User: Fold these one by one.
Assistant:
Number 1:
Amino acid sequence: MKKDQLIDAIGKLDDTLFSEIEASMQSERTAVAGADTESRGVSKPRFKKRRFVLVALAAVMLIGGAAAFGAGGLSGLLKIGKTDDGGREQTTAEYIPFGDVRVDPSLITGRINDALAEMPERVRNAQPFDNVMPNAILRRFATIDDALGYVGYKNMVFPRLDYECVSVQTEGYGIAAAELDAAVREAAGLDSEAYVLSDVSIGVTQKYRSNPDYCFQTIAYLCTDYVKEAPVRIHMVLENAKTATDQKTVNGRTFTILRTNTTDLAEGHQLATSVFWQENDVLFCFHIVYNEECRDEAERVADEWMHSFP
Amino acid sequence: MTDSEIMDLYQKRDEAAIRETQKKYQRYLMKIAMSILGDESDAEECLNDALLAAWNSAPADRPEHLSLYLGKIVRVKAIDRVRYNTRQKRQGTEYTVSVEELEEVFVDDRSPENALDDALLREALQNFLRKQSAEVRMLFLARYFYYRSLREAASLCGMSESKAKTILFRTRKKLRTFLKKEGFMP
């Protein structure tokens, strides 16, 4: 057999085999969490220290100002900005909680501590072409309870929704990228915006499937940090996006809502709704991507998430 | 504009079909071409070739999923181009890296008596992939259809790079065994 025949055969595979990967690629285009590298559409929200926020803001020209709502019932501030990425104009959205959401590390009691303890050794021994980022912990779980147990922080609660659960995972980051050997850092594609061991960010993500074509994600983050003035935030980068901000009060909580229309993405992935909330030191985010026909359904699911808050 | 409306334009031979296709899928198709070619001007040329091919074939075809239909055309055009380029100079793209991985699967037997029917190979490959879990299938296609880097492919499938690497290694080994069993290689 010639290798070209195999390559060509892969190129002619039946469309039905692509259903999962196509759904994943749709999700990737606007995913809130997942890829560490920025992909088309929305990048993963990440914890940023204030010093990084300040650096970023210096380069950001705010458009339309910040969507600063009144403080009553709201948990944070949503800032919409614009930035230039090598000639490509990008819209940024940052959700910055009002409160100090840092968690005392001693309150994190799960097995994630074992992995964190191993991190310095992993960093010391990291080689440029290792397949695992030495400063990251990524674990997948069968259930959300398993994931929350792994973290072991009592205030990290999760709204439960009655949809097919696609995946549950935790992500943890420690050790500043700057502490890694330069060759390792470059090979791993890590930027300098990373974390020291005492500044661990932990995210738990649950992906659901609300219908065969569209997934949505619910995410909870926390951050341990000994450094003062280090609030966390969710940072999203969107290309050619029209944005609209909103708020909705449910059971005394006033959620911040960001609706985006990213016009240069393929149909079916253009519209997205993100909802933000911070409570008990944990930052919560809901994210759904949809097209015009599914607008009502997406809004209904987002509403359901807000009502399902424990 | 919906896929169906764009397909109507193709079938009416309305050149707006090309404009609407570019508007909607340019970035998606460029990503595929760039993953294979690694050169922007080559990728743009490849995209133009693909759009022309779509224009020429669309009256006969009315694909269910326009994005995948176009993606497959771009993939073919880009691979043709990289084969041409590789004859002159080896390219360091995800395509060549992915192809090197796939080399574990086959023995390059060029004897005429071992020439195989492409359609049968495709059928066998489909049967093989259908027997794999959704996770394995996704990873295989991310790496060997879309030529995503190992890191991107792992991320698309929600797993670590090391896990993705292990799964791909095992899958290539299983595929090799399967193809031998099916008589596609000695």
Number 2:
Amino acid sequence: MSLLEVEDLAVHFGGVKAVDGVSFAVDQGEVFAIIGPNGAGKSTIFNLISHIYQPTRGRICFDGADITGSKPQDMARLGIARTFQNIELFDHSTVLDNLLMGRHTHRQSNFIQDILFLPSVRREERLHRERVEEVIEFLELEAYRNKRIEGLPYGVRKIVEIGRALAIGPKLILLDEPASGLSVEETQDVAFWIEDMRRDMGLTVLMVEHDMGLVSQVCDRVLAVANGKPLAQGTPHEVQADPHVQAAYLGTPEEVAV
Amino acid sequence: MRVVFKTSYDRDIDLHEHGLDRGKMLGLVGLMILLPFLVNDYYLAEAANTLIWALAGMGLMIAVGHTGQVSLGHAAFLAIGAYTDAALMNAGVPFLVAFPLAGLLTGLFGAVIAIPAVRMSGIYLAIATLAVFVIVEELILLLEPITGGVSGIAAPSITLFGISFDRYGELHNFYWLILAVVILVTWGYANLMRSPTGRSFLAVRDSEVSARAMGINVTRTRALAFGLSSGVTGLAGALMGHYIGFFNYELFSVFISINLLLVVTIGGLGFIQGAFLGAVLITGMPQVIAILRDGLNASVGVDLGSIPGLDTVLFSVILILFIIFEPTGLYGRWLKIRTWFELFPLARRDMFRRHKTYLKTERMK
Amino acid sequence: MELIQLAVGGVANGCIYGLVALGFVLIYKTSEGVNFAQGDLMMLGAFVALGLGNSAQMGLSFWLAVPLAVCIMFCVGWGVERVVVRRIFGQPQFALVILTIALGFVFRFVAGSIWGYSPLVLETPFNGVNLRFGELVISMADLLTIVITLALTFGLWTFFAHTRIGLAAQAASQNQMAAYIVGIPVMKVNSLIWGLSGAVATVAGVLYATRGAIDPNIGLLGIKAFAAAVIGGLGSLPGALLGGMLIGVVEPIAGRYAPGGIAIMSPYIIMLAVLVTRPGGLFAQIHMKKV
């Protein structure tokens, strides 16, 4: 049974068809990647799924319910977490606080209880902290726990962002270029974490990625897009071998000849 | 360097990381409580004034420092608080009811105007608050039956459980009342900032799009922050009314809004402590200037009193210098000095280097 | 007839608001910052012209004093950017707001110390000259205000839309880093624009002074001009002018026909209404952050 179903999705900005007629389904427990050349509309598809943009046409179903008209702030509650291509962390807070912010949808207290800091609020804080510590342990962020984001290296921030998404406790996690800007070792770590997320946490992963090595290593299925249109879908090998995909990346043979 | 061994998550949740910190805080509160026995009435009144400014500063800090909503019109909330409290008390409502009600009504007003205003980003909100301020000022004049119009209104003296808290008759009691309010609000504010609500404020300040992805309702969070901010400022306004005794709309000029911004910026944006440091500076400066003026006049015969507007321009220059050289404010500077001593002799200049950011428009075309 | 008479005066008034608003827009267009000292720059410009031109002071000819004042204020604007504003480059927008508010107080203090706080009148060759069109009376000052404002707005609009440096300035506002990379001297452009807005403010100040007495507190008019800029949309030059005129016309008419107090509130009520319905102003540029 598929967790996320996208049907005939399209969005137009003015006359530009950024995404046009994309359909795919991600199964429960699957690692699914969207690949394509720059400007193909991969990130736009992500923004449509996380409802930062509203689609011009098409339907998005999650966990058996139509969520097309939802608001971006409803996503976390539904169980969809995401990371951003250009890291959008809360720069002036510590890593710990950033992760705790991911627990927002699980809060039970209201602001009046918070102001009084009732014992129930403290109990809840301890619980959130335990969840967050699990994420810290999983991603090996212990050394950075009380460091502010501003001073952290790029690679660490990238991982903190994944951690924050995990802290939400999602069913589906959207990773927008998780390996971009990372070293080979760091990329390897990301590959292992994605494996673990699927195996140990039972997560479904949807990612946009350029690094074909990472994609072939961790992904079950791949969707290739170009100019907002779907090109091919299948296992990483099938998609890489597809002539349309090769043409989109390398140009058509005729063009190369000229 | 102090090393804190944490053996439980509670150590992070507690307000103070360290027993020593808690001791220092209690010592400070003790000193403030004993202040009436240590200084004369003139300085006690000044201390009361400083506390009122600190309260108003905390109000603005919630909006500016912790949620990133700049307000150029917070004097309007001071005014609403002061007038509501005074008008209710003149109508026979006891202080114990009128005072919280003044805060509540001001807070509701703030939240209501914030709901459309939150759709606007940064600069536009600042301008909208300025507009609200001008409108409130005019409304005060128009609502003469309640506000006394141009001639103003008297804030009656406070009596609680048969004890007088009159500003002039029982200054000690009045001071303690203000201190109690300030301590309560500070405690609530500190609690807020270690709880999910406070974190959601910070989230909205630092990245709206991420905050949404965390499931935070940005509009509601901003309205809540602005409501709390104006509510606390309203409480400060009510106390200010009692402190002044008889006031009209001129007490709450646009300069008061600017001074409040000064309090939070110079004090240190994003730190509760900053509101207090800023308040000490802004209420202490005129005293220092007055002393200097008298001193110069007596010793070298230079009469600074003949230059009008000197106070304001001094404030402005200090503000400019702070923004250029120490944007983290007095509290930020203090943190750096403390770190330097704690690490001595290992601190490097580089540690406190600011990260330059480049402006990138949020406009798409 | 009375209505038309009010409207003409209102348009002229609105032109002043519009000119000050142009200053806001210039700086907003290049640095996405807002200069809250714009009104005080206008005040200072008017006083510099007065100091140069009035017979009791330097006594230069009006036609010499005004261009000289414009040049001086260009340098003041340029200098403010070089000495103060440049240092907070890279800090959040909010820092510039507070910085310029403080600068406004400094300007006011400077003007007050030199020229005093009592109202002064600028001597012009056309003091009290009126033109009659049937029943309609238009003062020379009003007419000049309208003509000069339109010309200046058109000139600035052309500058931004068609000259290299104007386009560079716009590019700098949208992405400073990228502008650097393609070789735009962002800092120099910023200084130039601040100088320009100082010059425009002086023109506004002189025109304001031709219509009445001035004192160091007229800079508070900046708040109203601000409303004008916001109504038009902070990034639009013609929008600023139209916003100014709208306020200028509504104010006297509200003062004449509406109950007391409404006239003073009217610019802000219009502004709030615009902000609520079209948060980016009437001539809005699309606001949305790309992620």
